[in-house]
Design brief:
This protein is 38% helix and 21% strand. A hairpin with a 2-residue loop joins strand 3 (255-262) and strand 4. It binds adenosine-5'-triphosphate. Adenosine-5'-triphosphate is lined by residues 229-230, 249, 251-252, 256, 271, 301, 341, 376, 403, 422, 436, 562.
């Protein structure tokens, strides 16, 4: 397919405000996409050159892209930068320059998707002396061969501004509709996605070998597995009634890590599948020293540890370690410990189908004794009192609560179900768990707060079935001045002139924000509400959070699709008010 044709699809996707229409356009695009382009088209749709977990960055900011535009259209760099200032979008500047140059080729004479993708990949992998010059030169050559609309979209890719609002589940639906005309393949595609996290690989396998080959895709070293997640139950009794005798572990409030070992090579992935190996050198070293297998995938919670006070530090402190600079200094000041809690793969065997008990046994022998990686302790509880003892012990030690695990359950990638259940401490009059929300808009305030340009935040949760973000509450009080400023800064790049396609809200904020920024919110209660769309689905009442307050920014370890789901909200609504342990 010509890149100019793909650019037309980008433009249709960008103009769409309805999720169903996104799927239709994608299905049309994919049904015309040849098998050797389906992976690259998929990555480009998300403004990328590889799946999320591969840290391939193009490494060109607005200024270098402006240089390339100037060179492509024989213009002065300052003219390009003036356009950029006026239009606020380097892509729009490129389009104008291409139109005015009068040199634009006819669309049918322009390069195909493959050629553009390969050029961008070349640019991304060029490094060393003179690399900037080569990057600018390659981009300029490509721009000179493209029509104005294609120039616009091409220039948005290096600067990370190609935001078409197409989420991963929407792409999977697009594949299914393109192949069979409905979404009946979605479940099978989703299983492969949960185990490999690579949409391009799934698309290419489906196109080349069909759905049965997709069914054979499975866990592999180097592809992060989407994590198994925990459900909530309101009390110790409810947990044991649901799970039967269960393994009880302390719940550590740190940073979830999935560690892949392949011989001497170690990769560490975060909760949202980003590669974080560079930030956690002592865990990588300890993996080589302590893991008794050639290849392995295991999971644990990393916590910063203060050797002077012999204390573990909370999430906020641990996340300081995620800042990539000064890793060596912070590693000394706040070394990490990893509490390993599950294992998925050992020496070529995918062991996720084994029971929890069997996997724990494998984990015990996999991890050799050492200072950095510890296997988290567990007891098997038959009675509520045994569970409560661990819970109280955890809370006294400053931890959040416990995790209960069903003894005969497999590891189900990407699933939130009752194989794992969390029980957290809570103040009376508060929900037992925080809710991860996504900012979808803000409302300008009056008075002091207007100094920060924000008066209240409109936030949503994730409707997994429909792959959209319906509103659930407004957060207007309780933020410090610094937090308002931070909200504003984080949301700024995602401000949108129109309601984003995957956002659903009856309220109209002053400014829409693309669903990108994840915040953790604590509320007193979930109520039914005619104002918010979460869970409304054509009915008169949705669900809302009462007295919400910001606890932390979570976009470091959560993608918007990792936010709390509507389905979870409905369940939390039904369970609220119970006490985790008897008073
Ligand atoms: P989630 O990760 O489920 O979306 P969340 O980020 O809000 O939710 P919690 O619900 O508080 O986190 O807890 C689940 C997380 O707890 C797991 O993802 C994992 O990172 C962490 N965790 C801590 N201790 C354990 C443990 N012993 N076993 C499993 N997970 C644990």
């Amino acid at each position: 397919m010509l890149f100019s044709e793909l650019a037309h699809y980008f433009s249709r996707l960008e103009e769409t405000t309805k999720r169903n229409a996104l799927v239709e356009i994608l299905a049309e695009l994919f049904s015309k996409t040849p098998e050797d382009e389906v992976a690259s088209t998929t990555y480009l749709l998300q403004g990328r050159l590889a799946p999320f977990f591969k840290p391939i960055e193009i490494g060109m900011g607005n200024n270098y892209v402006a240089d390339a535009i100037a060179r492509a259209f024989d213009a002065d760099r300052t003219v390009v930068l003036q356009r950029f200032d006026r239009l606020g979008d380097i892509g729009a500047a490129a389009r104008e320059m291409a139109e005015e140059s009068g040199k634009a080729p006819r669309p049918e004479d322009t390069p195909d998707v493959r050629a553009v993708f390969d050029t961008l990949t070349n640019i991304a992998t060029t490094s060393g002396a003179g690399s900037i010059e080569r990057k600018v030169g390659d981009l300029a050559t490509m721009l000179a061969q493209l029509d104005p609309l294609s120039c616009m979209y091409l220039c948005r890719i290096p600067v990370g501004k190609l935001r078409l609002g197409v989420g991963d589940p929407t792409i999977l639906d697009g594949y299914s509709f393109a192949k069979v005309g409905d979404k009946s393949l979605r479940k099978r595609l989703e299983r492969a996605y949960n185990e490999t996290s690579d949409l391009g690989l799934i698309g290419e396998t489906l196109w080349r070998e069909g759905i049965d080959a997709v069914d054979r895709l499975s866990i592999q070293i180097g592809n992060p597995v989407r994590p198994a997640l925990a459900e909530r139950l309101p009390s110790a009794e409810a947990i044991l009634t649901k799970l039967g005798p269960a393994a009880i572990e302390k719940k550590f409030d740190g940073f979830r890590c999935q560690i892949h070992k392949l011989g001497d090579e170690v990769r560490i992935y975060s909760r949202n599948l980003e590669e974080m190996t560079g930030a956690f050198p002592e865990i990588a070293d300890a993996t080589l020293a302590q893991v008794a297998a050639e290849t392995a995938i295991f999971e644990g919670e990393a916590l910063a540890y203060n050797p002077l006070s012999d204390e573990y530090l909370p999430f906020q402190e641990t996340t300081r370690r995620r800042r990539k600079h000064n890793v060596a200094d912070t590693a000394l000041e706040l070394p990490l410990r990893l509490f390993a809690f599950d294992v998925l793969y050992i020496d070529g065997d995918n062991i996720t189908p084994l029971t929890y008990t069997e996997r724990r046994e494998r984990l015990q022998t996999l991890i050799r004794p050492g200072d950095t990686i510890l296997v988290s302790e567990e007891i098997v509880a038959n009675e509520a009192s045994e569970l409560i003892t661990v819970f109280n012990d955890a809370v006294q030690g400053g931890l959040e609560g416990i995790m209960a695990k069903k003894l005969d359950s497999p590891y189900q990638a990407g699933a939130r179900n009752y194989n794992w259940v969390k029980l957290k401490r809570a103040q009376s009059g508060e929900l037992q768990d925080t809710v991860d929300c996504v900012v979808i808009g803000y409302i300008y305030g009056r008075g002091k707060r207007s100094a920060f340009g924000v008066g209240a935040l409109l936030v949503g949760v994730y409707d997994q079935e429909r792959d959209i973000f319906p509103s659930i509450t407004k957060i207007g009080t309780g933020l410090t001045d610094a937090e308002w400023r931070e909200v504003r800064e984080r949301c700024e790049p995602y401000v949108s002139a129109e309601k984003p396609a995957r956002v659903e809200s009856l309220l109209q904020p002053s400014v829409w924000v693309e669903p990108e920024v994840v915040i953790e919110v604590l509320a007193d209660e979930i109520t039914r509400s005619p104002v918010h769309s979460a869970g409304m689905n054509g009915e008169k009442q949705g669900y809302a959070l009462r007295f919400p307050r910001l606890i932390s920014f979570r976009d470091l370890d959560k993608r918007p699709e990792d936010a709390t789901t509507v389905q979870e909200i409905v369940e939390m609504y039904g369970k609220q008010g119970a006490k985790p342990v008897p008073a």
